[in-house]
Design a protein that fits this description.
single chain, about 475 residues, mainly alpha, two-stranded antiparallel ribbon, Trk-type K+ transport system, membrane component, membrane, monoatomic cation transmembrane transporter activity, transport, transmembrane
Length: about 475
């Protein structure tokens, strides 16, 4: 009896210890939206790696090697679009379904998706769920300090934002699919096959992934300008971000009522789109392997398409490896910037570039503060923008050096594919498909860090925020 009593007590103590450890681990993961995002993204990558490794997912019925399955899982969940296998021929119908589901899950953003599921199940959003969902629309919340809510989505609007995210994704992809269906048929695709390829292409354009389900990619549709224009429209809508779509839905063409974030995102996106196209025309109009053999109209359209895809779209109708070195550098710069915050695009984001450009302009004009459209941009936003660029540049540099050392490939081509992975673009000079397994893992990690976001990663790794009740003496070092 005494032994049973001691055993029972030990069992209770052990059980309580297990429950306590589980509760502490759960609290550590869910108390911080950033840590929760990293945890869920990692879990999704592992799940899809296992699914892509199954024989039923491959067209030949054989298990896909671990490196290829992992890379495809990361590229799918992170909506990147790079691949180490031929996406049109390697995967079975089951594999294509996994890709389709994965990119839509990854595009919504894990925190947003978790909040939508919670809203569906419980019919309401608690404060923690709102904070987690709002973290997708404003990375500054990850730091736990005071946040200027005036230029982003307020907590009271999170429920409306989630509805906009879910509804806009369904509606936009459905409209794109309807528009793409006749184009696929005119391109020679069987009407029955086009029924699933149209939604597939629609999802790949809106999520800014760029995978193609058919052998040869977009090459059979290189002259189908209507289809290419629809794909560009899908990429643009996906790249501006859900908070901007939310603002446009609420205020439509009342520009004065748009948030500063929406104004900066749309203006910078449109500006880079046309400037990028102009740069590609100037650099490639004499290159016989790209635009050299085209007339003025075709050259202009192809330049616009390439500019749109380097923003995170990932589709390509020319051989990227045939671009001039100067064009590869220009494309790398556009890819590094990427699309809008809380969007399906990657990169450091257009608002980050806009804030830094405004800060430089204000410094040159001798202004004491950074201002735009009658609003003052606080210093904490400028610090986050600077840290995003610094962390992004560091990740790209380390990844490029490592892969270049492992492969001995030309550094300009390695740099292009690394930035394409970090910015979740999906364009490739051709070296990604030839990488050894060690370099595949490095590039997969780069894609993961690029999609999760440098601010989110830093906040997830950092300890809980601490309040400092004192101020150190000021001393100004010499800079510049």
């Amino acid at each position: 009896m005494a032994g049973d009593s001691v055993g029972a007590r030990l069992g209770r103590v052990f059980g309580q210890g297990q429950r306590g450890a589980w509760q502490r681990a759960r609290h550590a993961a869910t108390s911080s939206p950033s840590r929760f995002a990293v945890l869920i993204f990692s879990a999704l990558v592992l799940v899809f790696t296992a699914l892509f490794s199954l024989p039923i997912a491959a067209a030949d019925g054989n298990p896909t090697p671990l490196a290829d399955a992992l890379f495809t899982a990361v590229s799918t969940i992170c909506v990147t679009g790079l691949s180490t296998v031929d996406m049109g021929t390697h995967w079975s119908p089951v594999g294509h379904v996994l890709v389709y589901v994965g990119v839509n899950v990854g595009a919504l953003g894990v925190l947003t998706l978790a909040s939508i599921l919670g809203l569906v199940i419980s019919k309401r959003l608690g404060l923690r769920a709102k904070l987690m969902a709002a973290g997708d629309s404003n990375p500054l919340r990850a730091h736990g300090g005071p946040v200027n809510e005036g230029q982003t989505v307020r907590l009271g609007e999170v429920g409306q934002l989630l509805s906009t995210v879910a509804l806009s994704t369904l509606v936009i992809e459905a409209i794109l699919a309807v528009l793409l269906y006749p184009s696929l048929i005119l391109g020679g695709v069987d009407p029955l096959t086009a029924l699933w390829e149209a939604p597939y292409y629609a999802a790949m354009s809106f999520t800014n992934t760029g995978f193609t389900p058919n052998e040869g990619g977009l090459e059979p549709f290189a002259d189908n300008y209507f289809m290419l224009t629809v794909l560009m429209a899908g990429v643009f809508l996906g790249s501006i971000g859900f908070p901007v779509i939310f603002t446009l839905w609420r205020h439509q063409w009342h520009v004065r009522r748009w948030s500063l974030h929406a104004k900066l995102t749309i203006i910078t996106t449109v500006l880079l789109f046309f400037v990028g196209a102009g740069v590609f025309v100037l650099l490639e109009y004499e290159n016989p392997a790209t635009f050299g053999s085209l007339d003025a109209w075709d050259t202009t359209f192809q330049a616009l398409f390439l500019s749109a895809m380097t923003r995170s779209g990932g589709f390509s109708i020319i051989d990227i490896g045939e671009l001039n070195g100067s064009s590869l550098v220009a494309a790398s710069m556009l890819m590094f910037v990427g699309g809008g915050s809380a969007s399906t695009a990657g990169g450091i984001k257009v608002t980050t570039l806009a804030v830094l450009a405004l800060a430089v302009w204000s410094e040159a004009k001798g202004r004491p503060s950074v201002e735009a459209f009658g609003r003052r941009i606080p210093s904490d936003v400028q610090r986050v923008a600077l840290s995003v660029v610094a962390w992004g540049s560091t990740i790209v540099a380390l990844s490029t050096i490592t892969i270049a050392q492992l492969t001995k490939a030309p550094v300009e081509m390695v740099l292009f594919d690394v930035i394409s992975g970090f910015a979740t673009v999906g364009l490739s000079t051709g070296i990604t498909a030839e990488l050894p397994d060690s370099a595949v893992y490095v590039l997969a990690l780069t894609m993961f860090m690029g999609r999760v976001g440098t601010v989110t990663l830093a906040a997830a790794v950092a300890a809980t925020s601490r309040t400092q009740h004192y101020s150190l003496p000021v001393e100004r070092p010499i800079v510049g």
